[in-house]
Amino acid sequence: MIILTRKQLLAVAALAVALVAVVLGLAYRDDLRAWAAPQKPATGEPAGHDRATMEEPKERKVLYWYDPMHPAYKSDKPGVAPDCGMQLVPKYADDAASLRTMPAGAVQISPAKQQLIGVRTATVAAEDLTQIIRAVGLVQVDETRVARVHTKVSGWVRRVFVDYTWERVERGAPLFTLYSPELVSAQKEYLIARRAESYLGQAPYREAAAGSEALLRAARERLKLWDVTDEQVRMLEERGAPQEEMTVYAPVGGHVTVRNVFPNQYITPESDLYTITDHSHVWAQAQLYEYEVAGVRVGQPARMTVEAYPGRVFEGRVAFIDPHLDAATRTVRARLEFDNPELALKPEMFATVELQVPLGRRVVVPREAVLDTGARQIVFLALPDGYFEPREIQIGQRLGDRVVVLAGLAPGDTIVTSGVFLIDSESRLKSALEGMQH
Predict the structure, then answer these.
(1) Does the pTM exceed 0.70?
(2) How many distinct structural domains can be found in the chain?
(3) Residue 363: CB partners within 8 Å, gap ≥ 6?
(4) Of 67, 162, 216, 239, whose Cβ has the fewest other Cβ atoms within 10 Å?
């Protein structure tokens, strides 16, 4: 990248103005020569007949001649400027009179000069627009579908049924067996409470019957809180004796992403034994630029493609938009949700996300038609008789090579789409000359 100093930038700007002035000066000189050239009679017709039947063009009155590089220098006759050698340009009286009725900054450019500087125009129209937002996405695990397996009692692991990472398990599948003295004691207490309830439940004393029922419910609730299933309690009742090894089952279905269980291992409630992740539903995190965030809404449909499956489109929706902007990347993260029944989308895959934001019916113009000065945005309206009027507008979203106009233009207006910079230079030069005259 080439970095210019302030002096170099000023020099480049001066050179650009000089080139514009040269172009305009040559165009003015061509116009003057066209006016000064004698009219030749048509072949086969006498010159006298030509003078009698054809109207001679009116001679335009020249107020003075000036240097386009230094408009303060004026002369009463054509020639060249003494300082820079530029060809002097005529200032016509009819130009000043006609421009008085035009808006401020308006300028008249002859067809010859328009062709020379490459002026093109287009008619402003209103269209039903849809903004297409494309962003880079990253497939990730759905955090709401991640389960960690712990026990609520301490003990020793006896047998392990799921013994490697990424193994697929179904909900309710056995993971390992556990010998826990606490569980054995709880089973014994339940059997004792059950026998007491069956014996005292028929007793004539209501207090004794109610106490036995309460004791049985408490023993049963204790087993339930320690994740002993109803089926295991039923088998305990049928067997009539406590079971030393209790089986621990998978709370959800998915893939084992973390495995920390081994035979004969002593575990406690703090031990992180398994992590099971359900990949049938995934997230995609997309980075949106600041100017794109305004049109994105939660619940909006989203489309996604990945390099692994060319031509395949995954349909999802916007689930969440971060409330904070990333200061490093100047982007806002949006979370998208996608169903993944075939497990085609793998976490950590890069993806291309596409969002369609309907904008309604808006006025649009080519971006090259807008002269953006930073503080203002200006277009030039093409008026009859070669006049061009600067018009300040308010712009909205940028859609590729076009821009939405919020205010300042209406459908049917004709604007300049090419040569805007040179017309602006001519307009500024005309304003400078008028300021010097006053």
Answers:
(1) no
(2) 3
(3) 124, 125, 126, 404, 405, 409, 410, 411
(4) 239
